[in-house]
Amino acid sequence: MNEVTKIDGIGSSVRRTEDKKFLTGKGRYTDDINRPGQVQAYFLRSDVAHAEIKSIDTKAAQSAPGVVGVFTGSDIAADKVGGPICGWVVPCRDGSSTKEPPHPLLAQGKVRFVGDAVAVVVAETMEQAKSAAELIDVDYNELTPVVDFVSADKGAQIHEEVPNNCYFDWELGDESATNKAIESAAKVVKLSVRNNRLVPNAMEPRSALAEYDSLDESYTLHTTSQNPHLTRLVLAAFMFAIPESKLRVIAPDVGGGFGSKIYVYIEEAVCVWASKKIGRPVKWTADRTQAFLTDCHGRDHVNDVQLALDENNKIIGLRVDTVCNLGAYLSAFSVVVPTILHGTLLSGQYDIPTIYTNVKGMATNTVNVDAYRGAGRPEATYLLERTMETAAKEVGMDPAEFRRINFIPKDAFPYQTQVALQYDIGDYEPHLDKAMEMIDYSNFEKRRAEAAKRGMYRGIGMSSYIEACGLAPSAVVGALGGRVGQWESASVRVNPTGTISVFTGSHSHGQGHATTFAQIVADKLGIPMENVEVIHGDTDKTPFGMGSYGSRSLASGGSAISKAVDKIINKSKKIAAHLLEASEDDIDFKDGKFVVGGTDKEKAFGEIALAAYVPHNYPLETLEPGLEENAFYDPTNFVFPSGTHIAEVEIDPATGVVEVVDWAACDDFGNLVNPMIVEGQVHGGIAQGIGQALLEDAHYDENGQLLTASYMDYCMPRADDLPSFKVGYTNTPCTHNDLGVKGCGEAGAIASPPALINAVIDALSPLGVTDMSMPATPQKVWKAIQESQSVAAE
Amino acid sequence: MGEISLKLNGKLETRDVADNTLLVDFIREHIGLTGTHVGCDTSQCGACVIHLDGVSVKACTMLAKQAEGSEIVTIEGLADGDELHPMQQAFHENHGLQCGFCTPGMVMSAIEMVTKNKNISEDEIRKGLEGNICRCTGYHNIVQSVKAGAAKMGG
Lengths: 794, 155
Hints:
heterodimer; A: alpha+beta; Aldehyde Oxidoreductase, domain 4; Aldehyde Oxidoreductase, domain 3; 3 domains; 7-stranded mixed beta sheet; 5-stranded mixed beta sheet; 28 strands; 28% helix; 23% strand; B: alpha+beta; Ubiquitin-like (UB roll); DNA polymerase, domain 1; 2 domains; 5 helices; 5 strands; globular
């Protein structure tokens, strides 16, 4: 073991230990892995949005060159393989529960969106599989597609089990008190907003490689997953009815997730099934078009908002009526996103005495909609922060001051909102103040005037967001309709020489866990980081764990590691006490050494490790040998990051192009373990939010064809669409986890869209523009400018 | 089918490939170097950028046959043993990567950009990276990395 020189512990911007393999092309993503005898799967997908399948003729495809199997829904049904399940349901206003229609792995009798899998062709090469798929003859009886979700209740019924195409009609809060507040208000600010539909677009397309071992009747699946243990559970228990021990799921390097790789998709399951059927490893990798058509999309809400104010401009009530699009089938967490992760966030950073919300989740002939970075919280923040800005303008207050007088005061924590959550801690004015200072808010009007001289419209806009991440505790998750626990696991194995192997239930797909988690262990044990290895993503190696999403990895997974290390330290103290012939109570642990208090008698951590595995001088009668501990940590509450982001834009009236000229983000994530990694998370989140606000829009035509199914049609943010970002922090450490940490992964995507749209509207406010929908494309902005000018001319 | 020969990361490689084999599939499937990635099917994302005779090229936009006799460098060919190329080192030091999927293409594009323009400005970097999409970093740290890489490369 190395001598302790410098500990790259908590709070240090250590460069990432995982970088080198990625920088040298040695990352190992699912599609990089090949197996001897492997065959390729290609899915024939529906090219119509809504139809009955009259017949499928696969004969010609069966005998095409290289084909080893062609399968349809009837083959899956014959083997009684189940489909993906819904992981969370909510009660409806009428007392019924969420409607859960079946989702077969391959279409049975009906197709429900363009991209719905009708058949799978397995062949020696992908080219042969694709060619053979063209020979399959599907006879459809086309039905009227339901595309517009707001009017979906009047459309053709998509599922027998879902009357009026409404999966659920859910409510939260006190309707009558809220309506009373609105009726008695000095002013009611009304706003309707749409949260545009997005495609997550992790750069690595989804992929699966399944193999079956006939000797021990077991499967191995390499897949692009954010949570391999959940994937194993769903596949084993709900689809194939096999013991979990017969299925190993490995999520190796995963190239981004953003929510889209949480769920078990039909392709993974079909590959697993086909690998046994054919007796050879089966691989499938999506091309980008398939990714656009079949990855779960995000957002897609309309929200009607009524904000009630008293005569002092204090908020006295909030009502939000939401309709959201959940697509053709209920995806695993599609129900929780617009309800529990949306409705409960509606208090934002504000002290609101009464809130009511109603959410209707609709079925349409579009691909499933589920969690995408932020998942419900961006939608809540968008409608609230757009309304706050609108209200401020309507009552003639500075938007910052209007927020300030409505903030939950810092001495009111723990604060019970009217929408179920209890915020443990927060202090909102400091991040508002700091963000304003970072962007030089007080001199903005000078910059606006200077821009106007150049013929440009300059605007500023802010948003003060709250986030709830690390869903917990499990008992509450269950009471709210969740069908999973929301704890996290860690296993910390001290090896005989004192090096450490950390096995975590979290999964990294870009977040840098190998570095952050090693820092926690190194800090707590006083050992160098290079002695700590973090292992994740393999169900045969790691303890059952819940994976990574919802900004939970550090607060839940990191806390589990911290708890397991505490157990290591406790046991080590006992061993040290024996070796040093002292009482356990007299042993202090500091800087990697166990010291008998007030003496120079000490043992290094490495010596304790060795003694645990070579227990020649060891209290065997009271203590087991070895040094390895597990922790399963179920947090007592969510964590509540908050912050203020301020955007500054310039708009060229000749083109309608919005240029983001400055950005200040000030966030309270509690304690930071690796500020460099946190900053990177903030940058990435803001970029996705700017993408939503200015560029991205998933658009289906009236026939249910996705018009934006490539990077030629769906506008991803490029480097020259974005500015550099100013990032700052405040800190109110979380009160209920040992590390005092919150989550940082989604904050940028939550905070940024309303800040940016508020800035765009502010820029155009001299023209009388008061609203702008997302994305604020040049065409839309240009049109708004033209219309305002024609109104002015009249 | 037909035989093609080219130099890949300094080594002569000869393979029999189908006429319609894309260069990126040749590199990934036939040679087995999987650092060059495929992130789209419309030549937009840039995850497959390699150097062909010193010029950065999207390996999904050309046939392997068209590369006959050329010299190709992929992400695997940059480091000198354990020593990273200055641009790779700059990406590491400036946290210019997260999930790593776009990284090989970013680094290959960045090196060519900086080789052509030693005193590259931030604006030029942002415009130069238009053909490379990253979903994780928001580009902020990639731009910093390219700037730092340019300095290391003698800019």
